[in-house]
Prior knowledge:
It is a single chain. This protein has helices spanning about 55-65, 100-105, 135-140, 150-160, 200-215, 235-240, 270-275; strands at about 5, 20-25, 30-35, 40-50, 75-80, 85-90, 115-120, 125-130, 145-150, 170-175, 180-185, 190-195, 225-230, 245-250, 255-260. It has about 280 residues and is α/β, with parallel strands linked by helices.
Amino acid sequence: MNDINLLDETFDKNQSHNYHMSIQTGNDGFSLCLLDTIRNKYIAFRHHPMDKSDHNFEEIISIIQSDPLLKLPYKSVSHMLTDGKSTLVPTFFFEEKKEQLIFQFNQVQEDFSEVLFNNLSNAMVVNIFAYPKAYFAKIKEIYPNLKAFHRSSPFIETLVQNSAKWVTPKCFVAINKKEIDIGIAQKKKLEFFNSFTYKEHTDIVYYILNIIEQFKLSAMETEVYISVDLENHDEIFEFLNNYLNLIKFIHPSDQYTYSYIFDELQLTRFANLFNLALCA
């Protein structure tokens, strides 16, 4: 994918103090979007592809420091990494200052990482995850009020919000470069969430069908909402259609409006980024 630069004509750099900026970094590139909090409308989107198989944090910092749009003073800034593991804990059982102990009990913490957490009010859980320590310190230096998130936080909050009107359980699937996130919810109750590492498209199908079967749901009758943050998203959708009967798309939240500049952008691919503001 080439660089994408979309900017609504109503954007005003002198009004940046009324804008919320969401940033996403991962193996597939660097992306950002701007939300005008006065009009509750998204007015900008940028994507810088990165070819390297792993994070290049120096390149990301260079992008941030060289892009005039990223240097403006914003009302608030959210940042999300698209890889890495997380651990969910019911809010009732969570004790602050013990997040590192909980994370290490469930995941392997790298020596150079810092453990953080998100309170997910809709799902009534706390999401514990890790960020590279040096990178987190640098980006906090650039944006002192920055809030850090795991990619599963907006995924889970969006799933639970949407499930308020679901009489029967429905499944959400977010496919990233190396991992997939799968969640099941109904009536604002998170029934299941987990992340899985995959190599082939057949692995994705296996995990989805296996979880649907565990919940005694029908692969032919269960609505499965998909988003694919990859360039070969059409190929993956076509493959999944051979095994799932009711595939739908995860869309950005209807709590916001979206500029016409996004008409040609496949919003489902970046739905998680646009939904990050729900957690801010």
